[in-house]
Amino acid sequence: MAQQFNELEYREQLIAKGVDPAQAFDLARRTTEAQGLPPAQAKQEATKKAPAKRRSKSSKKGSITKKEKELIDSGLQIAEKEPGNDDLTFMHSIMCQVGLPRSKVNGLEFERVCGGAGLYIRAGKLWDGKQFIQQPLPYGPMPRLVMAHLNTEALRQKSPEIEVGNSAASFLKRLGKESSGGRNGTLTNFRKQIQALSACSMTLGITTAAKTITYDGKPIQQFEAWLANSEEQGTLWPGT
């Protein structure tokens, strides 16, 4: 049975993380109302008396970070609106249990095991028209988002060939992400991660009560993206 949302506990957790007490009260109350639960009986004034030792450095500013606000807003949106069929996303059960690296990995191999499931990834190379270029291991939220999108589209379209648009920016839009340029922008990071994902190979392992299964292959069988040979030549992008 799922545990019922506790407004008071959630409010205190937000305050402990540095959220302004008044803002924490409002966020917790909105979450309660979104779930159709009765409001907490404790008075708002009581929540403003958070112990000084529980306040973080960020609480002095009386605000939360952009990332924290996005997480809170997403939580409220999920609570207020029940997801429909178009909101469903699919991922292989092993990839849900032992996902891709969360941060950059030093080296060209990565291995993760959890219970009876295991994931082993090897970085690969891409041809730029003149030579093979070594790619890093894919990491971070972007490759995970791409894999979820490709799996979902493959199931919905009943085809292994997935439309990805005619540019990295258009593919990002399909993923619900805004593209920003620059050396460290979203677009640059996305290109690097999608190239790393398309070049790598994976070994998935799963042990059940009946048998042990090992799958070895590439998450993307063919990705017709070419690396630029020079600054004058831009990176080409496939349509599928």
Can you tell me the number of structural domains? 2
* Distance linking N and C termini: 43 Å
Helix content: 25-40%
How much β-strand is present in the residues?
5-15%
Uncertain stretches = 42-61, 229-234
Q: Largest sheet at a glance?
A: 4 strands, antiparallel
| Integer-rounded radius of gyration | 22 Å
Number of strands: 6
| Overall SS class | alpha+beta
Main sheet: which strands, in order across? 1-2-5-6
Q: Quickly count the helices.
A: 8
SSE succession:
HHHHHEEEEHHHEE
Give a nutshell description of this structure:
With 240 residues, the chain is α+β, with helices and mostly antiparallel strands. The protein has helices at 7-16, 21-34, 44-47, 66-80, 93-97, 141-157, 168-174, 186-199, and strands at 109-114, 117-122, 125-127, 132-134, 201-207, 212-217.
Describe the structure.
The chain has a 4-stranded antiparallel beta sheet. The protein has a two-stranded antiparallel ribbon with strand order 3-4. It has about 240 residues and is α+β, with helices and mostly antiparallel strands. The longest helix has 17 residues, at about 140-155. The chain folds into 2 domains: about 5-80, no CATH class; about 95-215, no CATH class. The protein is built from 8 helices and 6 strands, in the order αααααββββαααββ.
Task: List strands and helices in order, with pairings.
Layout: H1 7-16, H2 21-34, H3 44-47, H4 66-80, H5 93-97, E1 109-114, E2 117-122, E3 125-127, E4 132-134, H6 141-157, H7 168-174, H8 186-199, E5 201-207, E6 212-217
Antiparallel strand pairs: 1-2, 2-5, 3-4, 5-6
